[in-house]
Design a protein that fits this description.
Helix content is 29%, strand content 22%. The chain is an alpha/beta fold. It has two domains: 113 residues, D-serine dehydratase-like domain (Lyase, Ornithine Decarboxylase, Chain A, domain 1, Beta Barrel); 227 residues, Alpha-Beta Barrel (TIM Barrel). Strand 3, helix 3 and strand 4 form a beta-alpha-beta unit. Bound molecules: pyridoxal-5'-phosphate (PLP).
């Protein structure tokens, strides 16, 4: 079956592009002496996670939520870092259930009370085996994490708790990933990540044998590798890409970020052609995550002046310019996603294509795992 024969709206993954993205990132990281710890929040798909691991160069994988970790464990993947703090009783119970199956599971901590709770739980529920933890450092973003200045005392505190094993630090500077200018992005990211590197050195100099400094996203993958202390890159979007990332500036004053190519796209069909300057398509807000500053763009037909715009829950509009360029009823149009993570989360599966031919179907098995 050709991809244009698929029922729409649906997601497709171009396997050739996807595989090139994996190899490019792996080779880049290994060349700079770093590992990858790809973030599964991007794709929520254990079939993709397994391919990232198989490509090599990975120190493990990241998830945002413990429910995502559980799905990966059930799919046979064990070396997972949960990048968001686990605080409530039910999450801690779920964590220790996961640990019985995947003892390498690692979590982040930004709070002393949470550290004490997790330490006590590990002693009680984990056969006395210490839980692996990282100090989560806030890169002045204010989401989670502890201020740079408080990170060393926090590391010392954790190091003194019998149920915890301090493995290192996490610092993910989400606030810089989409800064448009490469030079500004570079300067800001290096400023923030160097502060985290200083904390990492202090922890080591204080005699704690930490070995992980994890951070970095797709927007700074070739910036943060200049920091010697960073051990692994928590990159997520690079394997699929989206309009948000394609829109940012590239290295050497490049207008766009073109290192990784979009492997993910969304197919939508023209369902009404009765208007003068646009046609109506069957993909709206329920088919694609809405990002005002990066609307989906038409990737196929490539080079056309067609432009997608939102048209409510179920539909979208495609403006076509000149009358001669008007799409026909039933035409299938391919769009890039605005933002890949929440778009993928709307689908049960993704069609896999090579040269336009459908060759496989992968389940988005972590879909909806937001707990
Ligand atoms: C903690 C953390 N690490 C890594 C990533 C991956 O970032 P990106 O998709 O920019 O590569 C994210 C994305 O939001 C994140 O929240």
């Amino acid at each position: 079956m050709r991809k244009t024969e698929l029922d729409t709206p649906c997601l497709v993954l171009d396997l050739d592009i996807f595989e090139k993205n994996l190899i490019l990132m792996r080779d880049f990281a290994l060349d700079r002496g770093k590992n990858l710890r790809p973030h599964v929040k991007t794709h929520k798909c254990s079939a993709i996670a397994k391919r990232q691991l198989a490509a090599g160069g990975c120190a493990g994988l990241c998830v945002a939520k413990i429910s995502e970790a559980r799905k990966l464990i059930d799919a046979g993947i064990g070396n997972i870092l949960v990048t968001s703090p686990l605080v409530t009783d039910i999450k801690i119970k779920n964590l220790f259930d996961c640990l019985k199956l995947a003892p390498e599971l690692t979590v982040v901590i930004d709070n002393r009370q949470n550290a004490e709770t997790l330490s006590a739980a590990a002693l009680e529920q984990n056969s006395g085996m210490p839980l692996r933890v990282l100090v989560d450092i806030d890169p002045e973003m204010g989401r989670t994490g502890i201020a740079y200045a408080d990170a060393l005392p926090m590391a010392e505190f954790i190091n003194g708790l019998p149920g915890l094993k301090l493995e290192g630090i996490q610092c993910y500077a989400g606030l810089v990933q989409h800064i448009n200018s490469f030079e500004e992005r570079r300067a800001k990211s290096l400023e923030l990540m160097r502060k985290a590197a200083e904390v990492f050195r202090k922890i080591r100099n204080a005699g704690m044998p930490v070995k992980i400094f994890t951070g970095t996203g797709t927007g700074t993958f070739d910036i943060d590798t200049d920091i010697p202390e960073i051990t692994d890159l928590q990159v997520g979007s690079y394997c699929l890409m989206d309009a948000e990332y394609c829109n940012i500036g590239g290295r050497n004053a490049g207008k766009n970020f073109t290192v990784f190519k979009p492997s993910l796209s969304l197919l939508t069909s023209v369902i009404s052609v009765n208007r003068k300057n646009f046609v109506t398509v069957d993909a709206g807000l329920k088919a694609m995550y809405f990002t005002p500053h990066a609307p989906p763009y038409v990737s196929n037909p490539a080079g056309s002046a067609w432009r997608y715009d939102w048209f409510g829950d179920e539909q979208g509009k495609v403006f076509f310019g000149h009358e001669d360029m008007k799409p026909y009823l039933g035409d299938v149009i391919e769009l890039s996603a605005s933002h890949c993570d929440p778009t993928i989360n709307l689908y049960d599966f993704i069609w896999v294509v090579r040269e336009g031919e459908v060759i496989d179907k992968w389940e988005i098995d972590l879909r909806g795992c937001s707990r």
